[in-house]
Amino acid sequence: MNRILFGLLSSSLILGLCACSGPPTTTPPPPGNATLSLTLRATPPLPSAHLSILTFRATVTGVSLTPSSGSAVSVNLVSGTASYVAEFTRFQSDSALLSAAVSVPAGTYNTVAVVFSDVFLVYCTQAASAATGCSAGVATGSAATATASTGAFPLTVTTGEKVGLALNLNISSAITASGQTISAVNLAAPNVLTAEVLQAPSSTTDLSSGQLAHIDDLYGVVRQRSRFGAKLHAADRLPWDGLHYGELVDNLRSGLLNTNFFLCDFRRTRGGRRNPQC
Q1: In sequence order, what DSSP letters do the residues of 103-170 get, joined into one string?
Q2: Strand runs labelled E in the chain
Q3: Is-contact 242 198, C-beta < 8 A?
Q4: What pLDDT tens digit does each residue of the chain (278 aa) get?
Q5: pTM of the prediction?
């Protein structure tokens, strides 16, 4: 009798526990990845500022995205090295490829941050408009992180999606100027960096499906070329601009660039002149 009663109580207890615990829970699978490409450009000061900036450069040492939850996601630079030298006076008219088809987790991101070091600016002042030549001045800045949180953000990327962002550095927001003299550079100041989504091709562009932008500031040596495409390697410190990019791109068929279109636009000799083959 006791044995039968114990069995009934045990069965009731098990049924009660199952009823209280509910159905088994499952952990949702982790999100997949998207691919992200970044370009870099700059907005010059207004002509009314009467500034003459001869060179303005900084070294990009890191790029990261801040998700809506979790830790920051690092974005590798296109050079495959730890740094990239950006010349902002050139980027006023050109665009540079900062990151190409980097894998990032799908999700929502609130900001993008770019870490700069070795900030250096040379400007020129002229005592009178009719005077010949000018006097050069130098302004430097500390290592700083520029952050963009508006425009393209918040940015939601889905699994398998190819996304492009155009990062724009506003030179006026980054400098302190009085008259023609620039006294300081601060790349961490408000409104220095903005971001826009690179739009998909439309009838107003000559970009094909899968291409996001034209890249105007890519220097290197073409070592292999065929009617199907080309392989581009950066020269080690081109004498005419002194910039070191390492090996930029091994095969430019990344979905971001049209190799056959731009090779002749940007293949140059060491003297900075256009290659006569183009």
Answers
A1: EEESEEEEEEEEEEEEEEEEEEE-SSTT-SS-EEEEEEE--EEEEE-STT-SEEE-TT-EEEEEEEEE
A2: 33-43, 53-67, 73-74, 84-87, 96-105, 107-125, 135-141, 144-148, 155-157, 162-170, 175-178, 181-185, 193-197, 221-226, 229-233
A3: no
A4: 444 443 433 444 343 444 444 555 655 556 799 999 999 999 999 998 889 999 999 999 999 999 999 999 999 998 567 888 999 999 998 888 899 889 999 999 999 999 999 999 999 998 776 667 788 999 999 999 999 999 999 999 999 999 999 999 999 999 999 999 999 999 999 999 999 998 755 666 677 766 777 666 555 555 566 655 555 554 433 333 332 333 333 333 333 333 333 333 333 333 444 444 43
A5: 0.69
Q: Quote the CA–CA distance of 71 and 29 in Å, as a whole number.
A: 18
- The one-letter code for the residue type at 206 is D
Q: Where are the domains of the chain?
A: 33-201, 218-278
Q: Which residues contact 148 (CB under 8 A, 6 or more apart)?
A: 111, 112, 113, 167, 193, 194, 195
- Report the b/e string of 40-60 with b at 16+ CB within 10 A: bbbebbeeeeebbbeebbbbb
